[in-house]
Amino acid sequence: MAGVTDVIFREICKELGADVMVTEFVSAEGIMQADERTRKYTEFTEGQRPVGVQLFGGDGARMGEAAKKIIDWKRPDFIDINFGCPVNKVVAKNGGSSLLKDCPLLTAVAGGVARAVGEVVPVTAKIRIGWDETTVNAVEVAKILEDTGMSAIAVHGRTRSQGYGGEADWEVIDAVARAVSIPVIGNGDITCGADVMRRKHETAVSGVMIGRAAMQNPWVFREAKHFLETGRESPGIDLEERWELVIRHCRLAAGSNRYGTEKQTLTAMRSRLMAYCKGFPGAKELRQRLCHVDSVAEVEDLAAFSISRAELAEL
Q1: Per-residue three-class SS string for 216-251
Q2: What residue numbers bound the domain in which 250 lies?
Q3: Does 106 lie in the same domain as 18?
Q4: What is the tally of structural domains in the chain?
Q5: Is 85 marked active-site?
């Protein structure tokens, strides 16, 4: 979720019902260099608590020192270690899911962070079920992580080689949850409240994590809670409310100076805007136009056009 779960988007998700969140993952080496560009990825507001800062890297001692620095800057509620990212540039640096095929190194990394800060804040880990279909070792890895002092484990139900293709394997997630005594949070293909209910009833997980589904539908957290409380789907979100949130997100981002000028901000947000607009009336044309927006005003104009066209279509 790098480039997605920044401080602004997390604020929106919190308002819509997200319980516990983690920051975008950040390089431990970047933290050690005290780079301001890296440090901004660890930002969060008090209202977003409980929130964890997520680290990746391949050196346990350096990871531990980086975790200490983060706690000195602004004490998060927990430190999360990313052993799940499948992206090549992360894997190439002995980060993310590459450690799933090197259990001794994974042990050293997890243990290094736990020893450094585990008595100050909890340390958790995110993994995938394995490197590829021939090396599905999530149960073994989870037991190692429990032994090294992790307080909880999140498991994404795909291998690294799958990326985000195919279906998440919740049977493996369930096996992990039954193999360790610490909480296990399941992740993968959760798009609505019924999915949350199903996984909570059919597996031994202690919680469910929602990732990519929130990019298009951050209301998913509110919808999930409604379903868990009532057993019914909540009323759909109308087009006008969806556009209100899109515009608000753009305004908050542009006003934060996080990405630079307004033009730079909207350029950085284009892929986010296209994700929001999946399923909108005339989505194909909207995405083509969103590829070129440079200002909040342009997004506002597109919103007005989209809502007007939808209203006319209903006449």
Answers
A1: HCCCHHHHHHHHHHHCCCCCCCCHHHHHHHHHHHHH
A2: 239-314
A3: yes
A4: 2
A5: yes
